[in-house]
Every structure is written in C-alpha cells, then in structure tokens.
Request: fold
Amino acid sequence: MLYLKEANREDLEREYAFVTSTPENENGFTNPGYRCTKDEFTHKILPGYINGAKGIGLPEGWVPETEFFLWDDDQIVGWFRIRHWLTEELAKGAGHIGYGIKKELRGKGYASAGLKLTVEKAWQIICEDEIYMSVRKDNPASLKVQMKNGAYIHHEDEREFYTRIKR
Reply:
C-alpha cells in the first residue's frame, strides 16, 4: 500500500538510509543530506525538516516546506517536498512541489501515484489557485508524470518546462 508520511523521528533509520543514498542534486531535486553522517542527520538535517514544516529556524527568504516520504508498505520509495507558499524566485523556478523516486524503482508508477497523493496534500497546505512545478527538458518521464496528474505547460525556457495544476 502506498502512502505519504511526513519526515519524523520514529522512522529515522529508514529516512537516514534513503536521504543519504539520494544524490545531492538530481534533475533539480536538491538534497542537502546526501552523504551526511548519522549524527548530522539525527541532530541537524531531520530536525531541520521537522522545524522547516512549521516555519521554525528558516534561513532568511525561505518559506516553510514539508518533506514527505513515499512509502510502499514498509519501504521508502520516494521523497516529495511541498513549499507552503511561493516567493517571487520560487514562482519563477522550482514552484511548490519537488520530488524524486529511488533510482532503481523508477518506471514502476511510484512518481505518478506519489505526485497524486502530494497534490492532494498540497491543496490542504497552499493558498494559491494553482500548484507550480518545474521539470528539466531532459527529463521527459517527469513531465509525463506531471501531465498525468493534471498539469499543463504554463511556459518554458531553454532548460525547463514550468507546469501548473489548477485547483
């Protein structure tokens, strides 16, 4: 059974294993915890995720964001991020939602199912009338995932498509 679960201390071991095996920046999805030590994850990274969802301790100019892990029964298969609102920079770039699926599990429908669940959560969190996302042009699979979940291409530049999902 697939479900989203917010980053939490109870699942620290599995979250740590997933985060540290996820590349630092893959297809635009950033991961500051890549290859961190367990101590760094336990005392800095994970508390940052938990507090960041509440808007606590954010760097200047950052917005609250909630980190969700996509679980398939007892295994983490993906990671989804919802930014609670947009700054001008986020509106022009990354948008509300970012995501990544464990490399060896791609092509199995996890991204589509996970994004569907994430969009449902996002409508409970964000106040804008549309969910903003972006996808690199060299990642057609992710564009297909977004389109399958109701996105349309709002505009593009030489590197990315900028998509929206209407409320």
Summary: The two ends are 26 Å apart (CA to CA). The beta strands are 2-6, 25-26, 29-30, 65-72, 75-83, 97-101, 130-136, 152-156, 160-166. Residues 20 and 33 are 6 Å apart (CA to CA). The longest strand covers residues 75-83.
